[in-house]
Design a protein that fits this description.
- 0% of the residues lie in helices and 53% in strands.
- By secondary structure, it is mainly β.
- The chain folds into 2 domains: 18-162, YVTN repeat-like/Quinoprotein amine dehydrogenase (Methylamine Dehydrogenase, Chain H, 7 Propeller), CATH 2.130.10; 174-473, YVTN repeat-like/Quinoprotein amine dehydrogenase (Methylamine Dehydrogenase, Chain H).
- The chain has a 4-stranded antiparallel beta sheet, with no helix packed on it.
- Strand 23 and strand 24 form a beta hairpin.
- The radius of gyration is 26 Å and the shape is elongated.
Length: 475
Amino acid sequence: MTPVAGALAIDTAGYAYDVAYSAATNCAIVADGDSGVAVVTLATQDLYHCSSYGSARSVVVSGDYAYVANGTAGFAIISLANPASPYRVSNLQLPGTSTQVALGAGWAVVAADDGGMSVIDIGDPTHPLVIASDYGVTHSEALAAGDSSIYLGSGGDLLNYSISPTWPRATAGQSLVSPGGSLTTNGAYVFALSSSGVLTTIDPNTGNGVGSCAASGQLETGLLGTSLNGSRVFAVYSSQDAYSPRSVVVSFDVSDPLHPRPLATLGISDIAVSVASYGDSLFVGAAGGILEYDVSEPTRFSLVGQFPALAFSMSVGNGCLVAGVGQFTTNSASLEVIDISSSGNPEKLGSCPVAVTSDGGYGGATAITVKGALAYLGGGDSPGFQVVNIENPRSPQVMGSLETGGLVYQIVASGHYALLDEENRVELVDVSVPVHPRIVSSYHLAKSYQTECFLGSCLLLGDPTIGDIYKIDYE
């Protein structure tokens, strides 16, 4: 092709996927593939480069910044304040291969070939935050945005999204030093259990430990879950060894949070995977079924009943035990609603099929919580999040579902929202319309955490393996 008179013909070194004009600097800004971002001064025809530490596929400009769809590296923001010395201000890892970007009012939207769509708050260019996403979009051919709308061409369809400014936003998080990482709360304090059986009481206002104690006896290596019932915390440890199955359940008295103390220890010759409590009953989900223990006497566990189901997760609500049931080796899973009103006689009321979770060898829901007449389930396969109506316990019904960004470890419900603790991220789901839950905010993490608890406007995430706790404040 022969350039017309007066036109520019500049070799940018990379593959020029896209170009945008910067009125503030009178420069052409080029998404130059693996070479990053190229800045061409139109007055002098000088060429400057900035590495995006990815593959720049699409670019838009506003003011002194360029916003880049950065291939498998996600999303990058480049400073153009000095066109002769552009530099990367920040980068945000996103699912898939980011190929398109557009700007709205204070936010950017990025579409990926195979990772859905992410909406990013760019109010602070040094710390962009994902505030909404749709991972169900598998093809992204065209993208445009207005002040509060997104238009996405996907697989022959035109999808339209509205962006609301009223969702809770996650502010910058911080790591807390703690020996424990499996979390539960009584509303005033957070109780963190470690893999070695140490319970630490944490003041959420300061993040400091204010009391601790250790369980008695020999524990197994895997801390599978905790449950708070009144002034007692229960925790289950399991070897997860099919050839030598053994689990240990421990209890702690936290009536005085500053001076917790161990109460009882129970050994079980089975693989335990979940725990829940209600009144004077403790329920342990094991490979051989759900075991019910009478814990009315604080220093003793008395086996009083059993229910034939492998519950990977359990929650008590609506007067029933609600369990995510599956098998280690089969591709079927269900939600079971169990009547626990008669101690020692758990009885099935109803069930419904739910999505299977194959991640990590699980067959049932990996996370479940009940609020009112709704149960929220999390897993790892499609769909990763489901809302089930259990108002009629004899006929539970799946109402709505959505795709998630990874395996869901735990769910907490607060108001009209559910907070999903996933692999390397926390997602805030609006469940005000149960038949159409939607992800309205995502907070990306440097690692995965397996437990969470919500206290006021503060979310705490825990890793019981190494005793790491991460705090996120919502506003």
